[in-house]
Design a protein that fits this description.
6-stranded mixed sheet; alpha/beta; 573 residues
Length: 573
């Protein structure tokens, strides 16, 4: 709740305005039955047309005032609640960006999607209703009961008793709702995760004919989610008909008792009965809103708890870089690593000794642990066992931002953002000049592409780079990496979409430009690895071979198998 109050606090002026408008609108609605009662008693009964017109004008004025207040409150309420939701999403997004990979993985992308859309959506709707529930319902309920006592004390007591019964029943009905909403939201998270897995792995699923298995998994999650939401909505759906039933019965009883008391009481008049029936409608509306609010609270509590769970995470990420410049010496000493909640280790006993200025190749098949090593190099995760050193310093002693300041990486997935070519390259170094950008693109073999367009560096790239080829995406990705000043440059399978000639030219320029800098090239291609100073061969998360290309052909069966399958064997050069 403290988080919700923090988001609401900046909009206290709007909330106060809403409360005043809701109070004015409600008071107008409360006085209309009173005026109508006077019209019946002193106008219609006495055939006083002037009195009827005067009181009728007052009723029209009250109705117009209530309508004006309602229109303004709708606009203000929608405006400030949507702004709070926007701010909430910004805060959650910024918080997520400060999480370590372990913390991020524990929540999961699927769950984060649900929390920033559905859960915050529920909070937005709740916030818009808070002023109405806080002001309108109490005024309408208490005012309606109080004004009803003006005519007769028995009739409002009947309604008061029924209202208490309705609220008690509503509370009992909705007591089990929270667990159903919680379970439903959890399985919504599961569904989001499965959909993401299906989209990213659709080729693998089809290649191994796992459609039936995936359908079964999805069907189970959908069934659990559906059952939870159906139960929750069915239970909460009982509130309105039950409340309406009791209130309608109360209305009939009030009319019946009122008719008897009109005949037996000299003080109770027909106008009072008419006004009381109108007050019953207002009180019933207040009770229905309160009942709906009570049934709404469990889902809101679940949503707020899920949002607060993100905001309450302790930041383990270090702050800004201390600006320390490290050399390119890297040591992995018997490093093992397991992802959170994984059954076993992804990496086991990895030892590497990389000297400053070396060109290192890391080769292995899919799932061998290559990209995991990149994540450990960038300090996205802490190791399970073993020790990592960068520039002779233990990672445990280094600020995470400092580590990433000294390492530049061209990621396996070439991320292209909507904007110009220069904008995409300058993500590596915001202060880079046009000349530096052009040089980086020239090294990345993109000079011809740039020169072929009149806009040159200002050529517009679409979202995800849909207007350029896969190889061009990779080369912009490489240009972005090398324009950043660093001691270590990592190329995570960044040459896979390039033909061999383009790769050879690019590698030649890279070696010239990054002379005396450490290069780590992650690859599945032996043709890429064979030109490195030293190659580490990975298989099932372990180093199964270390040495030069020629040495590995003799000493490492795994490497020779990769080489023979790609190059046809026979040529060891």
């Amino acid at each position: 709740m403290k988080h919700l109050l923090k988001f609401i606090k900046p909009f206290y002026k709007e909330i106060i305005l809403l409360m005043i408008l809701y109070a004015a609108s409600t008071l107008c609605a409360l006085f209309m039955p009173y005026v109508m009662s006077n019209i019946v008693e002193f106008g219609i009964k006495l055939n006083d047309l002037n009195y009827i017109l005067k009181e009728g004008a007052i009723m029209i004025a009250l109705a117009f005032a209530a309508l004006t207040c309602a229109l303004i409150t709708n606009r203000v309420s929608s405006n400030f609640s949507s702004k709070i939701a926007v701010n909430m999403r910004k805060v959650v997004f910024n918080k997520v960006n400060t999480l370590t990979f372990e913390q991020f993985s524990e929540i999961g992308t699927g769950s984060l999607i649900t929390r920033t859309t559905d859960d915050i959506g529920w909070m937005e709707e709740t916030i818009s209703q808070i002023p109405y529930v806080m002001i309108t319902c109490p005024i309408m309920f208490v005012g309606g009961i109080a004004l009803s006592f003006k005519g007769d004390w028995v009739l409002p007591l009947i309604l008061l008793g029924v209202s208490v019964v309705v609220l008690v029943i509503t509370t009992l009905i909705t007591s089990s709702l929270e667990k159903h909403w919680q379970r439903g939201d959890e399985y919504t998270d599961v569904q989001n995760r499965m959909i993401r897995e299906r989209l990213s792995g659709v080729r693998v699923v089809r290649a191994f004919d796992k459609d039936a298995y995936e359908h079964k998994r999805t069907a189970k999650a959908t069934s659990e989610m559906c059952n939870s939401f159906v139960k929750a909505n069915t239970i909460s759906g009982l509130v309105s008909p039950i409340a309406s039933l009791f209130l309608n019965i109360a209305t009939v009883v009030v009319i019946y008792v009122g008719a008897i008391r009109v005949q037996s009481s000299a003080t109770l008049k027909a106008g009072d009965i008419l006004a009381t029936i109108q007050y019953i409608a207002l009180i019933a509306n207040a009770v229905l809103v309160l009942s709906w609010t009570i049934s709404f609270i469990p889902h809101v509590k679940v949503s707020m708890r899920r949002i607060s769970a993100i905001l309450n995470i302790d930041n383990q990420e270090e702050g800004a870089s201390d600006g320390e410049v490290l050399d390119g010496n890297i040591t992995f000493d018997d490093v093992s690593f397991a992802y959170p909640n994984a059954v076993g280790n992804t990496l086991s006993g990895i030892s590497m000794d990389i000297k400053n200025g070396e060109i290192i190749g890391i080769i292995g098949g899919t799932g061998s642990g290559k990209s995991t090593i990149v994540k450990l190099l960038l300090d996205f995760y802490s190791t399970t066992d073993g020790k990592r050193l960068l520039g002779g310093k233990n990672y445990a002693e280094l600020n995470a931002a400092t580590v990433r300041d000294n390492i530049s990486v061209a990621l396996q997935k070439s991320m292209i953002f909507e904007g110009t070519v220069a904008d995409n390259v300058r993500m590596g170094d915001k202060s880079a000049t046009d000349e530096q950008v052009l040089e980086a693109l020239k090294i990345a073999q993109m000079e011809d592409f740039v020169n072929s367009h009149n806009e040159r560096l200002d050529y517009k790239l679409t979202q995800s780079g849909s207007n350029i080829s896969g190889g061009q995406k990779q080369r912009i990705n490489i240009a972005r990496a090398i324009i950043k000043p660093a001691s270590v440059y990592i190329f995570d399978d960044s040459f896979s979409a390039l033909d061999y000639l383009t790769e050879a030219n690019l590698r030649k320029e890279l070696n010239r430009y990054l002379k005396d800098k450490t290069q780590i090239i992650i690859t599945q291609r032996s043709a890429t690895a064979m030109r490195c100073d030293k190659v580490y061969v990975l298989d099932s998360g372990k180093v199964v071979g270390t040495g030069t290309h020629k040495e590995l052909l003799v000493t490492c069966p795994t490497y020779k198998e990769i080489y023979d399958s790609q190059m046809g064997g026979g040529n060891n050069e």
